[in-house]
Amino acid sequence: MTSSIVIITVLGYFALLFTISYIAGRHADNSGFFIGGRKSPWWAVSIATIGASISGVTFVSVPGMVTTSSFGYLQMVLGFTVGYIIIAFVLVPLFYRKKLFSIYGYLDSRFGLSAYKTGAWLFFISKMLGASVRLFLVCLTFQILIFTPFHLPFILNVFITVGLVWIYTFRGGVKSIIWTDVLKTICIVASVVLCIIYITSALNLSFGEMANYIRHSSMSKIFFFDDINNKEYFFKQFFAGIFTVIAMTGLDQDMMQRNLSCKNSHDSQKNMLISSICQLFVILLFLILGVMLYKFAYVKGITETGDSLFPAVATSSYFPIIVGILFIIGLTASAYSAAGSALTSLTTSFTVDIIGIKDKSEKQVKKLRQNVHVIMAVLMAITIYLFGLINSTSVIDAVYILASYTYGPILGLFAFGIIRKKPVRNRWIPLIAILSPVLCFIIQQNSEQWFNGYQMSYELLILNAAFTYIGLCLIINKEKTIS
């Protein structure tokens, strides 16, 4: 696949993206930027949420993981479904009742300023690093396909990539994100489905033969109940899925900003429930694609595995050029979906939570959030460039681990605030938010030695939240009551 075709594909996609972004966001005010003016149709938010949950990393990693995890990831996705139900009927009504621009405003009303700022800073650190590393991996792909053949430096790649994200989000914010994410979801799902069809056809298999091959493949095992020490053990994955989606969707400004743009809490609940079911089927499509990719690679003697498999097969000479184009569109759509929404949510949280908009006029807030939007884009570009200088997979892994640690205290804070109707000594909350991840890190490093070979997995998030919850119980202020 030539660089010219990649460039034409990406430019064509962005032309459509900018058109939709301009139409959707041309009349957006501050409310439109932060929460879409609470006028977004629930069905559009539902479609957008599916695309938002799929990053560029997911697009290439999930198909490649079937040799090591089979379909075990579906155990976690089943947990996601339960988590979405909890979000829909516990968190959504709470956020709408308080009429929040930023969900971390709840921490201010429930605990006080220290908890509010702690939650906002934890989100800022996690989202900035997480979004940057996801976009960094996409920049690496574009560097290989576009910039290196033209002898262009990586730093130019980074600033063009982030600049494109800034351009289509600066005017409309969430109002634009909703409709551009609808486009992205359609592109992602269509690219996966058509790639499955092309690969099946290239292997001379009918639909029934493909389904039969997948059903009998060792890579299609879903449930793992035999070894509790295995990271794929069902209850580890299932309960981790529940709490992961509560923390990283329900308590994530990025994800909830879309849901708060619905007209009312009932529409938002419908969106959450339908998008959770659709997400299950979309992830299943990615896993089916993975099995077919490995089948095709075996037949054709392709040696790439893991994250390299899908790009290698899609851009190879074994298929019509449309397959490579579909891959580039899907990768671009998934990557920029995550980056665009992350930049918008970072701007919202930093403007509303960390700087503050109280007692500011509409004009002052607009100028402030536009300046913050530029600053967030520059910070993201610098972070991506630093990843490029280090260029270490271990650093990337560390960022994802850090994200799981930062969401634990947020989950613990919200859980305590909703379950326990007790005031706490607010000034100690930042210390608890630091100590809880530290304790989790110590346990993770020693779990195999201390617990007979037990390996910590995504349940670290639950443990982190539990430590935060216990810490808050220890600083309950018995001399005060909640008004």
Task: Kindly list the characteristics that best describe this protein.
483 residues, Sodium/glucose cotransporter, globular
Gist of the model:
By secondary structure, the protein is an all-alpha fold.
Structure report:
- The chain is mainly alpha-helical and 483 residues long.
- The protein has one domain: Sodium/glucose cotransporter.
- Helix content is 76%, strand content 0%.
- It is built from 20 helices and no strands.
- The protein has helices at residues 3-25, 30-35, 42-52, 56-64, 66-69, 73-97, 105-110, 113-147, 154-169, 174-202, 207-216, 234-250, 253-259, 265-300, 309-314, 321-355, 362-390, 393-419, 429-450, 460-474.
- Helix 1 packs across helix 16 (321-355) and helix 18 (393-419) packs across helix 20 (460-474).
- The longest helix is centred in the middle third of the chain and has 36 residues, at 265-300.
- The relative contact order is 0.17.
CATH class: Mainly Alpha
* Proportion of beta-strand residues: under 5%
Total tally of structural domains = 1
Distance between the termini: 65 Å
Radius of gyration: 22 Å
What is the helix content? over 70%
Sheet/helix structural class: mainly alpha
Catalogue the unreliable spans: none
- How would you describe the shape? globular
Overall pLDDT metric = 81
Kindly report the name of the CATH homologous superfamily. Sodium/glucose cotransporter
Number of extended strands:
0
| Major sheet characteristics | none
The CATH architecture category equals Up-down Bundle
Order of helices and strands: HHHHHHHHHHHHHHHHHHHH
